From TrEMBL:
Record field: catalytic activity: prephenate + NAD(+) = 3-(4-hydroxyphenyl)pyruvate + CO2 + NADH
Keywords of this entry: Amino-acid biosynthesis, Aromatic amino acid biosynthesis, NAD, Oxidoreductase, Tyrosine biosynthesis
Family stated for the protein in its record: Belongs to the prephenate/arogenate dehydrogenase family.
Occurrences of domain Prephenate/arogenate dehydrogenase (ranges): 25-302
Species of the source: Microbacterium hydrocarbonoxydans
E.C. code: 1.3.1.12
Coiled coil: none
InterPro entries membership: 6-PGluconate_DH-like_C_sf (IPR008927), ACT-like_dom_sf (IPR045865), ACT_dom (IPR002912), NAD(P)-bd_dom_sf (IPR036291), PDH_C (IPR046825), PDH_N (IPR046826), Preph/Arog_dehydrog (IPR050812), Prephen_DH (IPR003099)
Record protein name field: Prephenate dehydrogenase
GO biological process entries: tyrosine biosynthetic process
Molecular-function GO terms, alphabetical: NAD+ binding; prephenate dehydrogenase (NAD+) activity; prephenate dehydrogenase (NADP+) activity
Pathway: Amino-acid biosynthesis; L-tyrosine biosynthesis; (4-hydroxyphenyl)pyruvate from prephenate (NAD(+) route): step 1/1
Domain called ACT: residue spans: 310-381
Length: 381
């Protein structure tokens, strides 16, 4: 019989060096969905004892079968409890875990931090041992079956301490973030919620609104879909039930940004109603330019602001072609910083958009062309 709990998903091979865990003892994870199970996989890869709990017996058994942790026993005495449940029950579960384990530090990974904190305060719950946190990581698909040990690697993990947080308790939550490969940073709950409203919650609404237009579009229009519409609607595949909770819990800052965005859209609409009118072209140009400025501020690879150039290579839709492309780029000494694939409708080839260091762009184009690759364009075209 195969032991399905011995190799957490996404775990490096046994021959890879493993950095010693900062946490020790038992970590209890409440909620065995995508985030909870991924935390379990990542901690178990470090050799940490992980106890899983979930209100759904089927979800719990599935997460255990995949190796995210073990079932709870009466003798468990966790030093750290991680609450990974939907936003509408986060405060209830935090309160219950604080009462059940009076010696444990309790954190949660909900995407909204202020509402559960205020709810618990209004109930008079002693929050000395509670520290809210939020890993900025996820996937389009949820559940234990989608969980991975590498989900948090290189991702920010916000930690919301307050004046009553002790250094030793704070160190536990920071150790959790570091042990799963994330980068901890401190924010207040208010700062966190306003930040994710702009960088996560409003983008979800905008992507969903745009994708909803596709649902009623003509088939002919959809056949013209390129990478631009795929990029801007990728997150529209998210679960409606979860986002109703997230947006409702963070409504105030989301509404502020949506109102400002609606005003911007009205301004552009008015300019395009009369594109020959004085100032109309300037409104459109400034809108695009300000978008350029905003994109430039987004952190790039490894959190840096370094920007890359892209070349688009035509790749035959046959086995091994993408691997050959990567191999020949390696021979040319070109590091692939990012990759995006687009299939051409009705054609037996795809387009590989490859991001490289600007200094390597010319050599990559020349070298690939000499090897018979067809270059469809660059970001400078």
């Amino acid at each position: 019989m195969t032991d399905t709990t011995s190799a957490p998903a996404g775990t490096p091979s046994s021959g890879a060096p493993r950095i010693a865990a900062r946490l020790s003892g038992t970590v209890r994870v409440v909620g065995a969905g995508l985030l909870g199970a991924s935390i379990g996989h990542a901690l178990r890869a470090k050799g940490i004892d992980v106890v899983l709990a979930d209100t759904s017996p089927a979800q719990l058994r599935l997460a255990i079968d995949y190796g995210a942790g073990r079932a709870a026993t009466e003798g468990d005495a966790p030093a750290l409890v991680v609450v990974a449940v939907p936003p509408d029950v986060t405060a209830d579960v935090i309160e219950a875990e604080l009462a059940r384990f009076p010696d444990a530090v309790v954190t949660d990974v909900a995407s909204v931090k202020l509402e559960p904190f205020r709810t618990l305060q209004s109930r008079g719950v002693d929050l000395t041992r509670y520290i809210g946190s939020h890993p900025l990581a996820g996937r389009e698909r949820g559940g234990a079956i989608s969980a991975r040990a590498d989900l948090f690697i290189g991702r920010p993990w916000v930690v919301c301490r307050d004046a009553e947080t002790t250094a030793s308790d704070l160190s536990l939550v920071e150790a959790l973030a570091l042990d799963v490969g994330a980068m901890p940073l401190e924010m207040t709950p208010e700062e966190h919620d306003r930040s994710v409203a702009l960088t996560s919650h409003v983008p979800q609404v905008v992507a969903s609104l745009l994708a909803a237009r596709l649902a009623v579009a003509d088939e002919g229009a959809l056949r013209l879909s390129g990478q631009g519409v795929r990029d801007t609607t990728r997150i529209a595949a998210s679960a409606p039930e979860l986002w109703v909770q997230i947006l409702g819990a963070n409504a105030e800052p989301v509404v502020e940004i949506l109102d400002a965005l609606a005003a911007d859209l009205r301004e552009v609409s008015e300019a395009l109603r009369a594109p020959e009118a004085p100032g109309a072209r300037r409104v459109v140009a400034e809108t695009i330019r300000q978008g350029n400025d905003g994109v430039e501020r987004l952190p790039g690879k490894h959190g840096q602001n370094q920007r890359f150039e892209s070349l688009v290579v035509m790749v035959d839709d046959t086995a091994g072609q993408l691997g050959r492309l990567f191999g020949e780029l390696g021979e040319l000494g070109v590091n692939v910083e990012d990759l995006r694939l687009e299939h051409s409708p009705g054609a037996q080839f795809g387009l590989a958009e490859i991001s490289v260091d600007p200094a390597a762009l010319h050599g990559a184009i020349t070298g690939l062309q000499e090897r018979g690759w067809r270059i469809a364009g660059t970001t400078n075209d």
